[in-house]
Amino acid sequence: MTFELCVEQLLNGFQFGFMLFLMSAGLTLIFGVMGLINLAHGSFYMIGAFSAAAVSAALGSFWFSLLASLIFASIAGVIVEIVIIRRLYDRDHLDQVLATFALILLFSESVRWIFGAYPLYLDVPDILSGSLQIIGGIYYSKYRLFIILVGLLLAIFLFFLIGKTNLGVQIRAGQHDREMISALGVDISKLYTFLFGLGAALAGLAGALVGTIQSVEVGMGEPVLILAFVVIVIGGIGSIKGAFMASLIVGCVDTMGRFLVPWILMSLTDPSTAMSIGSAIASMLIYVLMAIVLIVKPTGFFGKGLT
Amino acid sequence: MIPERSINVVCISSLLIFSLASHYIGEPYFVTLATRIAIFAMAAIGLNLVLGFGNLISFGHAAFFGFGGYVSGILATHAFNLEPILDWPVIFIGTSDSIVIWIFTIALCSVFALVIGFFCLRTSGVYFIMITLAFAQMLYYFAISWPSYGGEDGLSLYIRSSFLNIDTMNGISFFMICFFWLILSLYLTSRIIHSPFGLALRASRHNLDRVKSVGITPFRIQLVAFIISGVITGVAGSLYADLNRFVSPSLLSWQMSGELIVFIIIGGVGRIYGPLIGAIFFVTFEQIFGSYTDHWQVFLGLLIIVTVLFARGGLIGFLSGSRANE
Amino acid sequence: MFKLIKSVIVLIALVTTSAFADGHKLKVGMITTLSGGGSGLGIDVRDGFMLAIRNNDNIEVIIEDDQRKPDIAVQLADKMIQSEKVDVLTGIIWSNLAMAVVPAAVNQGKFYLSPNAGPSALAGKGCHKNYFNVAWQNDNLHEAAGGHANSSGFKNTFILAPNYPAGKDALTGFKRYFKGELAGEIYTKLGQKDYSVEIAQIRASNADSVFFFLPGGMGIGFMKQYAQSGIDTPVVGPAFSFDQGILKAVGTAALGVKNTSQWSKDLDNNANKIFVTEFKKEFGRLPSLYASQGYDTGNLLISAMKKSSVKDADAFRQAIRAANFESTRGSFKFSSNHHPIQDIYVREVVKEGEVLTNKIVSIGLKDHSNAYVDQCSM
Questions:
Q1: How many domains does chain B have?
Q2: What tens digit of pLDDT does each residue of C1-24 get?
Q3: ipTM of predicted assembly, 2 dp
Q4: Are B244 and C75 an interchain contact pair (Cβ–Cβ within 8 Å)?
Q5: For a FRET experiment, which of B108, B231, C7, C193 has its CA 20 to 30 Å from that of A7?
Q6: Which residue range is the domain that position B8 belongs to?
């Protein structure tokens, strides 16, 4: 095992982490401000990827397809918020879990109905394909660096939005005391719709970015959704800062686990067994991490004991 | 409006009549469906104890369902192949006797639920939802990659476990066994809910401080409820393994946990018969719409959303016009 | 009341059986995946099968969707056997579903013709006189990939597959024929879509070739990311990641990749030409590997029906075993454990106009049987 390999794997961990951040930022904001558990967040990820693939097939432009993912996912988000979600804010978590679980069924099967059962195609633009020499013998995929960059820019944008703008004041006020912001004369239903749309757009963009190097298929959202929930729970629900830190931690733990656990076991037993057991342990690792964090700190790193 | 008690009686008796009638007109598949309903209902009844009455939303109850399934699957496989599970300190070659299997399932599920509950119940609210999911996911990935018992391929059992002298391969006999368990778990839940313990459990849902002030430790109450809940769901899993003569990691998936919650909420949260009505509705819907279109899940999704938005209190609440019985 | 219903049903049953009394009528139960993940494969098998039997009035088919859930598949099989009284079952795509359904079905005296899954357990100790596999034994295509690696002169190969039974079978199958060294061996998480970690290890390993088995969306992700990584080590895989249905999603990343398959669109035989033309005409798309397997299953069934009624199980079994039909793959025989003996080809992904597809470049293994024949006492 070489130094170069370790650096590359660490970059992979960061790239995965930034990806998770795009998903979990919306999820944690929606939970923090509106108190809503949204299982259908993964569906916006899928909608983003499918609309990007459709636009890319029609226009042949990667950049338009990214734009399309933002637009279509946020439109879907806004419609869902107005028609269904806003009736769920003052319900208990159980109703929210069920209604958004039903939305997953609805969206997945509808997308399959429209686009058919086979995966769609999205590809990396020429300018981002291939890899870049960073330093010495370390090469890294340009496209993955691009994902890291987008994730970083959006993280800065979100911290700025919440920390420095008028809207951010309202959002933070909403996290602490919902009655207070309506007393401040803020049109709370518009704020909610905006936030939900923003969360959906981020998820949609994540879907398009990842769909480009993975596959665009029905059901792609749910595994990512589960991971995003792991992230926001570790970070503390409602906290963007927590989501950011936890994203990077989960990204690195998962990546390094897949790489290091079998390698460590290899010194104890034969390669084939080590790989097979190691990979089993690695796939359980982030859930173990989450369980440990919650046992030690039952509301995550930055949680305020919201229930 | 129909009184809730009548709805309950109609549901439980129609399940029985439906399966008997299907048996006599020679439609064994409908008997299988009725058995599936009874087992799913029982699994959800177990979950309902903590979810409906203790407001502990476990999103990981598939772990118990699958665990129960694997306990009985593993015992039966070893008995079938005559390969000992244990060589030491005693030689134990497994068993295909249902009663022994159930005892094992109950014992192992309580230990399993004790361990999981002990950690999970330190958290609450959404954190509880997620930590239960985390444990179920760990078990799921473990089962997929654990080669001894088939991994993702699962474990085929070839024949059902024996129960007294009854021919369990006969659909209607096996239905009766499951139906008996269903009634037993309904009765048990009802007794628990109306006991002082049940009152304390329901009180802990609303006002933790008040419960603490009368000298009850909510953690202990919740832990005991969680164990009973896990055991009921685990026995249901063991029956499901027997029904299909097959266990696989899909029983442990988070979608399975989701479906159990769906049964409860469609039927009506915090109602003893809610899960049964939810399961009847779900399986019937799947059968009827599934035969018309491959895209039946779209309609299921729409229907659930309408139920949540407009029929609060689930189907029972809708039919009886009452809110959940507190 | 029940008596009345019962007698009505008996009456209906009498009418239908008498209508079926002349000629070799047969009822087929098809359990396959038509909704949810992986439904593309089930749809192709169904379409291929229905195309083969479309002009045959003696076959009645009942199709049910298993949603890729083993428990649903088992219950559907019970339904088909007990309520629908089918003679032959077919259709299952996934090994884990086949393992759940097949043993019970064949033990109840039904025939099962597998159009896709061929788990080793059903080829070896668990073989059965009424179980026939019309596609391949699971290891076959991987073994051919191992053979191809030898003939291409690869000495140091990196291999990877998901950590589940079919994945382990794949790597075992490859290693059974590959004579070189392994530069690395990795089991990935089932359903994993990002392979940055594994690709980095491939880069660091100095392998001269890569073999992978990653079915469905997993393979799409791997191929695209591999192409992006700039590693130019050649890749070999079984046909599943390069088949017609999936190629569009992999895109140009797949161009030039060698893959092993028992069938290809450009196989030069009469049955295949008819199949490809008719399939395109009927469904408006190019047929896939799975469609060809469904089609062959249908034709095998018809060939057996011509010789014997399914009611005479022994004669019907003989008729199937003879495999006296024109396969889209050219020569096709059954081995003693009822799995195909067939040529496995090496194909290359090419572009025909705007469409990505495969063309045959060589034969990987000729008249290839399977490794489990000796374990089957039949």
A1: 1
A2: 444 444 445 444 444 444 444 457
A3: 0.82
A4: yes
A5: C193
A6: 4-320
